[in-house]
Amino acid sequence: MYTVFLIEAVQTALTGADVYYWFASGYGDLNHLATPFLSAIDVPIMESIVSAMVQFFYAYRVWILSYKNWWLCTLICLVGPLQAFLNHSHQVTSSSQFSTVNAVSALTGGIRVRAFLHFVLLVFLLTVADCSKNKVRDR
Fold it and tell me: CA-based angle 70:73:77, to the nearest 5?
């Protein structure tokens, strides 16, 4: 639990170092803005690690709430690292050339994965609600 906090604290410090590098030490130099400095580590790697950790915690909670339904948790555990890998590989390949198309495709990739996970959660909750209604009727 504290691991995510520590990783986010390190990410905040790295972002602060990036801001200092770009805007304080490189004031007036437009070439300074074009160099990534620490953002190559900060954004893709740290964000991917935190995202995968949150997905695993989400899978654990679904596993507990679904009475240890393994197929749903396996699906969530496979999607989380896949999202992290795709996010990391996309940002590494596009860090040399920034374009609006690359940024939009990276953002929509995360949105698609989250929409899929929300759909899975909705189906799970509807299934659990239906099962609980059947148990109440049987009594």
Answer: 130
| Nearest-angstrom CA–CA distance, 69 and 18 | 44
Within a domain: 34: no
pTM, 2 dp: 0.62
Q: Residue 49 belongs to what domain range?
A: 42-138
What domain count does the chain have? 1
Give CA 98 to chain center in angstroms: 21
End-to-end CA distance of the chain: 40
Q: Could you tell me if 90 and 122 are in contact, meaning their C-beta atoms sit under 8 angstroms apart?
A: no
96-131 in b/e form (b: 16+ CB < 10 A) is eeeeeeeeeebeeeeeebeeebeeeeeebeeeeeee
Residue 51 lies in a domain: yes
- Answer whether residue 27 is part of any domain: no
Is 125 within a domain? yes
**pLDDT tens track for 14-71:** 889 988 988 888 888 888 777 778 877 777 777 778 877 888 888 888 888 777 778 8
